[in-house]
Amino acid sequence: MKIKDKPSEPTSNSRFLELPVEVRQSILTSVLLPLDRYIYLSPKQSWVELDRAKTLPCPPILLVCRQIHAEAVRLMYLRATVVIYAQPGFLALPSRLPHRKLVRRLDIGIPMAEQNSGLSLGRPKAKIYLPIAPDRLLPQLQSVFPQARDISLTLCAIPPRAVPHMSSLSGATVCDLRALLLHSLLSDKITRIRYQLTDKLSYELFDLGQHGSQELLKERVGRATDLPNLREVEFYFTTPLSKPAHNRPIMWTARTAPASSMTILYRSLRQERGRMRSLGEKLPVVFPQVESLKLCRMLYWRGSITYELIDMGEPEAKAVPKLLKRRSIGW
After folding, report:
1. For 8, which DSSP code?
2. Which residues, listed in sequence order, are joined to residue 301 by a DSSP beta bridge?
3. Cβ distance 63 to 3 under 8 Å?
4. Whether the Cβ atoms of residue 148 and residue 94 lie closer than 8 Å to each other
5. Rounded to the nearest 10 degrees, how much is the dihedral formed by the CA atoms of 274, 279, 281, 286?
6. Comparing 38-52, 268-282, 294-308, which segment has the lowest mean pLDDT?
């Protein structure tokens, strides 16, 4: 969010500035709505974005005068979520931010490695890419945002074939996810985690749900199950219903699609639920502390990435028409 014009000086007859501070804050809060906005301190990264709110324009009240600007910006940074991405130099700009010490909410996008692992290897650990090791990174993060107490992590799996083409991963360090999550400077501040998984990692978790122990599952999610203040966990799976190759034969211009398309979706949905059911039963057990646990399906559609909420209890007769509608041209 950039402000092109400089705030003007307050005029001597400004009645607003004569109001009590509490009243001014109440008025500013109403004018600045929504306060739960996202502030991006670097360009958005396509590998992590799913459903971020659109970037909002600069509120005009910030340009009224310097004093009102200062009071309004303070309110904004106290309530907004600052979005950053774990890549080389990602703390350089925030360290120069005048209001960084007011920030309480952070959303950090972190690339997750898709390594070769399996049930036969014992304890498959989740791996992530960081610009430097957690022991060096987290003290820097704390010094830049000393008041951050509500931290969300978006862990986005990166296929190995894509890594050489991503400049943001140049020189990155591969480390255990649990080393980051359970670090003393971070573990009690994490309130939300989103796992965006490739098809390979999705089916690894499905297999762990069917054949693995709870301990193996905990390792695969980076021991996030041990975070004391974690309130929300979201899993975004990639399944055959996510992929464009599967969607193409069931896209139709007419409202009513041939029965064969419905048959394809019924079969795919049953297969997906069969693989996912055991995992869906285990996750609430290994995450007993969370208030919200969501299972979602990634949906690749017309060059964009969205998602669908997975309701395992929804009757197929209701679920399949919804799937077909979302995959029909003109939706």
Report:
1. P
2. 304
3. yes
4. no
5. 180
6. 38-52
8 Å CB contact between 124 and 219:
yes
Angle between helices 199-211 and 259-286 (to 10 degrees): 60
Q: How confident is the model at residue 54 (pLDDT cuts 50, 70, 90)?
A: low
Q: How far is CA 225 from the centre of its chain?
A: 18
Q: Which residues partner with 153 through β-bridges?
A: 108, 193
Strand pairing report for 105-113 and 127-130: antiparallel
Burial class (CB in 10 A: 0-12, 13-18, 19+), 48: buried
Residues in a beta bridge with 110: 155
Q: At 191, which helix (H) or strand (E)?
A: strand 190-196
The residues near 218 (Cβ < 8 Å, ≥ 6 apart) are 225, 226, 286
Dihedral sign, CA of 100, 101, 107, 111?
positive
User: For 193, how many CA atoms within 13 A lie in the half-sphere containing its CB?
Assistant: 28
pLDDT at 209: 92
Give the residue among 278, 187, 184, 198 at the shortest CA–CA distance from 224. 187
Residue 171: what pLDDT? 81
pLDDT, tens only, 123-157: 578 999 999 999 999 999 999 999 999 999 999 98
Q: And the tokens for 1?
A: 């969010």
DSSP state of 132: S
Q: Over the stretch 250-269, which tens digit does the pLDDT of each residue have?
A: 444 455 544 567 888 899 99
Q: Residue 24 corresponds to which amino acid?
A: R
Q: Which two tokens stand for residue 291?
A: 């208030």
Q: Which stretches of 9-100 are DSSP H helices? A: 21-31, 66-79
DSSP state of 168: G
Tell me which of 278 and 51 has the higher pLDDT: 278
Reduced to 3 states (helix: H, G, I; strand: E, B; else coil), residue 198 is: coil
